[in-house]
Design brief:
The protein is α/β, with parallel strands linked by helices and about 475 residues long. About 30% of the residues lie in helices and about 20% in strands. A hairpin with a 2-residue loop joins strand 4 and strand 5.
C-alpha cells in the first residue's frame, strides 16, 4: 500500500501535546488500525514535566500607529506554541528578542516548540518570514496577543499485534508537530503501513515476538504511557524502533541504542548492510535526539534505535509539507523496518539480554579512597526521564545546521552527556569515566553532578571505582 496518501490524510491537523487538532485526527488513525486510545489529563506532572492544557490563538498581531504590521494568527505556526496572552508597547530591539525567522528560508514561518518542553520558562514568541522581518523599522510597536487554555487530554495511540511470545518490540512515531509532514507524520504513516504488512504476514505464520505500535506526542506520550505500566508489562518490552523524519530524499541513517550491542542493533545493522551497502550509522544521541531518552531511561533501559533521513532544510517550518516527500523513500523505509523485524525474528528467545546488566564491574568498597571525588559512584533517585530545565540542569543543544547537530562541539558534548547521564550513572560511570568519554573537564563534570545531588536526583553511593 502506498504511504504518501496516508501522510496527506494525517497531515492537515494542528497537532500538539493536547488540543483539538489531535482530537480531530484520531478518527483518521482509527480508520487504519484498531488502536487503543489512552488518555492522560492535562495538568498532570511527572518528573517535572507537565501535560499542557489545550491552547488556542485568538489574536496575535504587531501594530505600528494602529496599522497592522504583521498578523501572526494567519499562520498556524505564527505564534510560539503555548504563548501566553500579552499586550505591550515595545521598541524594535525589545521586539526582536521575541521574533524568530530564518535567513536560509526567507519565506518560511518557523515552528517554535520550546514552551512545550521548558514548562518553567514559558514566554511569548512570534514567527515571521525573514523577508518581512528585515523590513521592520526602528519605531515603537504595539503587541496584542490573546490566547486561551482549556483542560484537555493527551491521546496516546497503542496497537498490539500479539506473537507467540509476550516479549515485545515497539515501533514509534510522534504526532505533536502542527502541519509538519516529514517531522513526523512520515514516521507515523510508515509505522502504520509496517504494522498493516505485519498483520497480513501473521495470518500466514504467527510471529515469534509481539509487535506494538505507539503513536504519541514526543517525550510526554511514551513517558506517561510507560509510567502507567506495571513492572511486568515494562519488562516485556525488549526494544524500540523510532521512525523520525523518514520521507524526504536523503539517505537513511541508523542510530544505535545506548549499549549499541543489543540484538536489535545487530538486526538493524544487518538489514542496512544488505539493503544500502554503504550508509551512515552512529551511537546513541550522535545523529538525532528524540524519544530514545524516554525508553532508555532507568529503570526501563529499553534498547532503542532510530531510523531517520534528518536533517532536511525545511525542518520545523511551514515548508515541511507532503509535497516535500517521496513515495519511493517512504516505501523504502517500510521495507527496511520489515527487514529489521525479520532479522529480529531470527533471534533465539534465550539470547535476549537482561536490560539491567551493568557494563562496569570494576567496583570496590574502600574507605581509604573515600575522598577521591572523581572516582565516586552515584545512584539515581528517580524513575524515567527528568525535565532538567525544571532544575536548572538543562544543557542547550547546539544550533541545527544543514548537516544536523555538531555533537563533537563543546556544547554538543555537554548536551550529549546530559541526555546520557541517567544511563551512565546506572552503569556506575564516575566523573573520571565521563571526563574521558565526553572529553570534558573533570572538575566541571563534578560540579554538574553535584547540582544533580543538591536537587536530590542523584545520591553518592558507598562504593568507588578502582582507578585504572
Amino acid at each position: 500500500m502506498n504511504v504518501l496518501p496516508l501522510v496527506k490524510k494525517l497531515f492537515p491537523f494542528s497537532y500538539s501535546i493536547t488540543g483539538q487538532g489531535n482530537d480531530n485526527a484520531i478518527p483518521q488513525y482509527l480508520s487504519e488500525l484498531d488502536f487503543d486510545v489512552h488518555e492522560y489529563a492535562s495538568g498532570q506532572s511527572l518528573n517535572g514535566w507537565f501535560i499542557p492544557h489545550s491552547w488556542h490563538v485568538k489574536k496575535a498581531k504587531i501594530y505600528h500607529e494602529n496599522k497592522i504590521v504583521y498578523d501572526a494568527g494567519l499562520s498556524p505556526l505564527g505564534l510560539a506554541t503555548l504563548s501566553p496572552s500579552y499586550t505591550a508597547k515595545l521598541s524594535l530591539n525589545e521586539l526582536q528578542a521575541h521574533l524568530t525567522s530564518s535567513k536560509e528560508l526567507p519565506d518560511a514561518v518557523l515552528y517554535q516548540w520550546k514552551n512545550l518542553y521548558r514548562p518553567r520558562e514559558v514566554t511569548w514568541g512570534i514567527s515571521i518570514p525573514h523577508k518581512e522581518r528585515i523590513k521592520l523599522e526602528d519605531v515603537e510597536y504595539r503587541i496584542e496577543i490573546e490566547t486561551k487554555s482549556t483542560p484537555s487530554t493527551m491521546k496516546v495511540l497503542d496497537y498490539l499485534l500479539p506473537g507467540e511470545s509476550k516479549e515485545t518490540l515497539v515501533i514509534n512515531g510522534h504526532n505533536c508537530h502542527p502541519f509538519q509532514a516529514n517531522d513526523d507524520i512520515s514516521g507515523c504513516a510508515v509505522a502504520i503501513r509496517v504494522m498493516q504488512a505485519l498483520q497480513k504476514k501473521a495470518t500466514l505464520k504467527p510471529f515469534k515476538y509481539s509487535y506494538r505500535l505507539l503513536i504519541a506526542p514526543e517525550l510526554h506520550g511514551p513517558m506517561f504511557w510507560l509510567n502507567d505500566m506495571n513492572q511486568e508489562e515494562q519488562s516485556k518490552i525488549k526494544g524500540c524502533i523510532l521512525l523520525k523524519s523518514v520521507g524526504n530524499k536523503a539517505a537513511m541513517r541508523l542510530q544505535h541504542s545506548y549499549l549499541g550491542n543489543q540484538p536489535l542493533d545487530a538486526a538493524a545493522e544487518s538489514a542496512f548492510k544488505n539493503k544500502y551497502i554503504t550508509f551512515e550509522q552512529g551511537g546513541f544521541r550522535s545523529i538525532y535526539g528524540n524519544d530514545e531518552t524516554v525508553f532508555e531511561a532507568p529503570p526501563y533501559n529499553i534498547p532503542c534505535i532510530s531510523l531517520t533521513r534528518w536533517p532536511f532544510s525545511e525542518y520545523h517550518s511551514d515548508l515541511d509539507t507532503p509535497e516535500l516527500l517521496s513515495e519511493q523513500h517512504l516505501q523504502d523505509c517500510v521495507d527496511t523496518v520489515i527487514d529489521i523485524i525479520e532479522n529480529y525474528e531470527a533471534i533465539d528467545n534465550n539470547t535476549l539480554p537482561n536490560k539491567n546488566i551493568r557494563r562496569n564491574n570494576s567496583l570496590f568498597y574502600s574507605k581509604e579512597i573515600s575522598n577521591d571525588k572523581f572516582n565516586q559512584c552515584y545512584k539515581i533517585n528517580f524513575n524515567g526521564l527528568v525535565c532538567l530545565s525544571a532544575y536548572g540542569l538543562y544543557k542547550s543543544i547546539p544550533e541545527v545546521s544543514n548537516t544536523g547537530v555538531d555533537y563533537n562541539s563543546i556544547n554538543g558534548r555537554w548536551n550529549k552527556l546530559m541526555n546520557c547521564l541517567p544511563r551512565e550513572i546506572d552503569d556506575d560511570m564516575t566523573v573520571n569515566d565521563l571526563s574521558i568519554k565526553y572529553d570534558l573537564p573533570r572538575q566541571e563534570i563534578y560540579e554538574y553532578l553535584r547540582e544533580w545531588v543538591e536537587n536530590k536526583l542523584l545520591i553518592p553511593a558507598n562504593y568507588w571505582k578502582r582507578p585504572v
